[in-house]
Amino acid sequence: MxxxxxxxxxxxxxxxxxxxTAMRDTMVHRGPDGGGNWISPDGKTGLAHRRLSIIxxxxxxxxxxxxxxxxxxxxxxxxxxxxxxxxxxxxxxGHSFRTDHSDxxxxxHGYEQWGTEGLLNRIAGDYAFAIWDGNTxxxxxxxxxxxxxxxxxxxxxxxxxxxxxxxxxxxxxLVVRDVEPMAMYHYLTFMSTPAPLTMFKGIYKLPAGxxxxxxxxxxxxxxxxxxxxxxQGIPESEIKGLSEAALxxxxxxxxxxxxxxxxxxxxxxxxxxxxFLSGGIDSSLNVALMSQSMSRPVDTFTVGFKDHxxxxxxxxxxxxxxxxxxxxxxxxxxxxDMRGYLNDLIYHQDExxxxxxxxxxxxxxxxxxxxxxTVVQVGEGSDEQFCGYEKYIEYLNLYRKxxxxxxxxxxxxxxxxxxxAAGVAAIARPGFEVYADIVDRGARGRxxxxxxxxxxxxxxxxxxxxxxxxxxxxxxxxxxxGGLLPDxxxxxxxxxVIRSFLEPFDATHPGQDVLTRMIYNEFKQRxxxxxxxxxxxxxxxxxxEPRVPFxxxxxxxxxxxxxxxxxxxxxxxxxxxxxxxxxLIPHQTIYRKKMGFGAPMSNWLKTEFGNFVEKSVLSSxxxxxxxFNVAYIRRLFADHRSGRRENGVYIWVLFNxxxxxxxxxxxxxxxAA
Length: 673
What we know:
alpha+beta, 6-stranded antiparallel β-sheet, 17 strands, 45% helix, globular
């Protein structure tokens, strides 16, 4: 895992080597083991790289790296887990390798041999890379299928600037620091900005499963090369005619095999590795399968809280640790640790990622790094695929018991009338807001499920933002290609984000069950742009590479072909995964009540820290710019402090936004210690 950056000038001027180095070295934390630059002979293209040495530690594997005749150059962040299998095929095709076992060199020769899409369709891994092709004079950017690794870019006049982190792009003098209002509007709903938007005007992130090509005349191409859709993982002929018992066995054994393969290949490393252990089913499966393949104890890492022990899963983690005789490490944190970390949190996030899990995630990541580990396996992606969240079950029950009858049995005028009445009731009873919004969605023919981390629902946003503060703007014409940036993202309606991917999904995969559509939704927004973004940003901030075996694309393709009835069979959430886990981890670990990885932020916001946050939010230049209803924000704080309403998540979303604005736009540090 590394940090990459670069500049491509398709007009007048040449790359400034000192500037390229400055961009690169904003990300020393991503690559403390070395840095390198390459500038093309004509001075038009510059690639930069910070190295975290994990595969092939020799200097021969340093980057940027080239092919035999120096016509193709790459800077690459990530790991290719099947590079060993691809290397002999490329060697037989006549390609010469200079390194012993560098996965980067497989990408270089793979691009030469198969082209962009041919390469992307063959590799398995987590990656973001930039390839300069001197033969075609094109810059080629790509992000992995699921979106484990981020890649940002900016299209300035005659210049393309890219990097693993936004801070590298901000180093370039052509980039002006300013907020993108529509990204901010959508962030208030989703807790993160939907790709390709970022909170910075003129800076974008490549969506998961996309590649982008810039030609020498500045023309942009973009295309999605993979999507988490059904129909890729299970041939119909293999399950046709199977009895229920045989079908269950097919699903269980298929999940188990693919997850085992995913864990095994993610143990590919020339440096020490371990696993984050919560004591739940996902992390425990990681530990179990890793321990079967290792001759030494697995290093496991757990975080807990000194001041709010009800959130701790230390006993559950210790049970798994004892079962598999791991080398276990624990860290306990409290409010003062969080306060001291805030400034670094805002810095490393680049743009707001308003999930307070980032705080314990940082401390457990630092624990792993300080223990000598460079690579960890994590459990993200399991709940999304196999219906592991209680909230998913609630949405499924809502759909079955209320949503379908409401939509099918009531005439439109009655639906609209109920929606209006519910909206009026919500004014008098703010706790009724979410229910009123659900009724409104139904009456307007909108989806009932927008994501597993929706913060301000529409009815709340209408009170939070000032009328007319967010108006439609024009998207950059260069990015309206290949479905990269829908025009509707620049309208003040966050349902357009959901509509932009669910409508094409329904057109190409009609008749899918409601859970499959919900899961697909999560793979488009919350999973890559919130959950995986936090894992990457926080882990790499301490030079730690997180790997995500549940999101191996071959497992995802298989799980997307398992229908809802098998993921929630008998009312048991995660039914198929739990069956696959039987015999591998303790029974009580599989069937205990899910707690979830959290932090006591709502409690901390009721202490003196909450006063600091309120003062920080209300004095922000962003709040004073006129976007928001200040009286509504004051009520959020007052109701939370008094205990009338649980508003912690709303407050944290606003604090992350204003702290980001203060740090990156107004150049103010965040000091709460």
